[in-house]
């Protein structure tokens, strides 16, 4: 009797038959679950189609979404009522299919500046975040921003209502982009930021009128913008290259000054030519007993004036001095912190008319070596071959007395307990601010060495040395890129939708989508049972409200 085994073909046929029978049995046991899974797959495909259509629409419309898509979750459809349902299911589920791409989160209203305000208020009239009345400093700590998945945070930018803590523009440029306070540097013939560590003092006006320091004034001393220059009152001074003002009889000199205790002896802050008494196209500024005095020697003789105000010791003041020979009996004006404080002249008023000269400017000394050395601090020394307006002088003062400083952090925990606020060098000791904004527009800074994380938060310090004026912020933006293909485990809750459906078909069909899809089981054109809303970062979230088998189906892009 022959005994034969099964052939390989027979074995494979038996295995296939068993698999078919098992599938039939499973479907027979729970056909509803299998059909629900099939419909869920269709729902996933539908919301993918919708979100891609919305995304393409935004690309063609400068980042704008179809009208009326906002942060409220609303069912898509044409029905005017009856669209308020509980969308989604409660319980632990996976929020899947996070689509990567550009990320931009903007705070620009009271509804978005919802963090912690200390000594601050939101001004609804002007839509500005500012210091509260009579406050010199305040802190804003933003709410924690959720990118929905791990993200690279690449840039921050903000729009202050006014330039804050920002040095004057180089190369005679004109600022743009600020709502107020843009400076026009037309006519600027000399600009010393006085930030050097040693050596030549660079002229940033673009005219190459560099300065030479003699007898070692203190570099990188205390200043308004970064650093200033300290003079000892003994023998140090600065001599500039020739500054040509021969084509004008109007000159403005502006600078920041801080004095020690009052000194009854006259000290020269600056003087054109080695001795202005010897040239009929010269000018001078002095300080005696902490009061500013100025003088002109012109074609008709001397004109001298003094400020009424006494400068308090160890306080920074912004001084603007205008020499204008086109104004009879008022050839010089002295402005302190943007306010005209010129007193009466000292009996010398020659009514000069001639233009100024082409000569070096001596800062901190009389150039002929006869002394009158200045003791104190100077910063941001600049000369214009024109008269500045009162608005320009006030704006120069405000940009030095107001400040906004920023720190940021990215976090993997939703409460940001694992992140620390840092500045541009990734330490807690530095801040992003306009002191490093060398452009003529609003500040924008690239972020480096910031870990890729899902969550982001920022902090702002508001400062002023004058309680009558406050730094003010219009908006803050953080940008980056969300990683593709991410998913995150979270506890989902059913979310109620609005009573009226949202019809976006006129925006999307037929150019971006043939028709708005609807739920394969209970949906219709009137009520699709797919809901949409805008989320942080100018992203779109779409939910399949009637997903089956306790599954959450949504997508964020």
Automatic annotation (TrEMBL):
InterPro entries: ConA-like_dom_sf, N_methyl_site, Pilin-like. It comes from the Bacteria. The chain crosses the membrane at residues 7-29. Gene3D superfamilies: 2.60.120.200, Glycoprotein, Type 4 Pilin. Keywords: Membrane, Transmembrane, Transmembrane helix. NCBIfam families: IV_pilin_GFxxxE. This is LamG-like jellyroll fold domain-containing protein. It comes from Candidatus Magasanikbacteria bacterium RIFOXYD2_FULL_36_9. The lineage of its organism: Bacteria, Candidatus Magasanikiibacteriota.
């Amino acid at each position: 009797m022959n005994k034969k085994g099964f052939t390989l073909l027979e074995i494979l046929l038996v295995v296939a038959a068993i698999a078919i029978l098992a599938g039939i049995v499973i479907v027979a046991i729970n056909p509803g679950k299998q059909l629900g899974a099939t419909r869920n797959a269709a729902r996933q495909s539908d919301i993918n189609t919708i979100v891609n259509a919305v995304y393409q629409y935004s690309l063609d419309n400068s980042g704008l979404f179809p009208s009326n898509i906002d942060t409220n979750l609303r069912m898509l459809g044409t029905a005017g009522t009856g669209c308020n349902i509980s969308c989604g299911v409660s319980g632990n589920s996976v929020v899947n299919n996070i689509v990567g791409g550009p990320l931009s989160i903007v705070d620009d209203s009271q509804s978005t500046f919802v963090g912690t305000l200390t000594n601050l208020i939101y001004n609804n009239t002007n839509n500005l975040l500012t210091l509260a009345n009579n406050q010199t400093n305040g802190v804003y700590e933003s709410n924690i921003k959720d990118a929905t998945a791990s993200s690279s945070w690449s840039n921050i930018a903000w729009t202050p209502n006014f330039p804050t803590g920002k040095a004057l523009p180089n190369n005679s440029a004109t600022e743009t982009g600020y709502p107020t306070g843009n400076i026009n540097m037309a006519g600027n013939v000399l600009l010393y930021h006085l930030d050097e560590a040693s050596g030549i003092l660079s002229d940033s006006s673009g005219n190459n009128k560099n300065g030479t320091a003699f007898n070692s004034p203190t570099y990188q001393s205390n200043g308004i913008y970064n650093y200033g220059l300290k003079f000892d009152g003994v023998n140090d001074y600065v001599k500039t290259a020739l500054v040509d003002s021969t084509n004008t009889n109007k000159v403005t000199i502006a600078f920041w000054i801080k004095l020690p205790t009052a000194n009854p002896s006259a000290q020269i802050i600056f003087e054109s030519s080695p001795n202005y008494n010897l040239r009929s196209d010269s000018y001078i500024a002095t300080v005696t007993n902490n009061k500013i005095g100025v003088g002109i020697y012109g074609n008709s003789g001397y004109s001298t004036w003094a400020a009424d105000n006494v400068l308090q010791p160890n306080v920074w003041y912004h001084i603007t001095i205008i020499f204008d020979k086109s104004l009879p009996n008022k050839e010089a004006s002295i402005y302190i912190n943007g306010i005209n404080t010129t007193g009466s002249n000292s009996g010398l008023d020659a009514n000069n008319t001639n233009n100024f000269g082409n000569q070096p400017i001596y800062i901190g000394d009389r150039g002929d070596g006869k002394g009158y050395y200045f003791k104190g601090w100077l910063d941001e020394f600049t000369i214009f071959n024109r008269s500045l307006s009162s608005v320009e002088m006030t704006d120069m003062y405000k940009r030095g007395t107001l400040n906004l400083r920023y720190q940021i952090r990215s976090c993997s925990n939703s409460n940001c307990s694992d992140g620390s606020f840092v500045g541009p060098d990734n330490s807690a000791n530095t801040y992003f601010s306009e002191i490093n904004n060398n452009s003529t527009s609003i500040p924008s800074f690239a972020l480096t060495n910031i870990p890729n994380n899902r969550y982001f938060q920022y902090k702002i310090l508001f400062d002023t040395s004058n309680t009558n004026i406050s730094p003010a912020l219009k908006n803050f933006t953080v940008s980056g890129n969300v990683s593709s293909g991410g998913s995150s485990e979270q506890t989902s809750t059913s979310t109620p939708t609005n009573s009226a459906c949202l019809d976006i078909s006129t925006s999307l069909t037929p150019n971006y989508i043939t028709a708005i899809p609807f739920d394969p089981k209970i949906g219709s054109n009137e009520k699709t049972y797919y809901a949409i809303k805008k989320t942080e970062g100018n992203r779109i979230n779409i939910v399949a409200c009637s997903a089956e088998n306790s599954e959450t189906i949504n997508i964020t892009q």
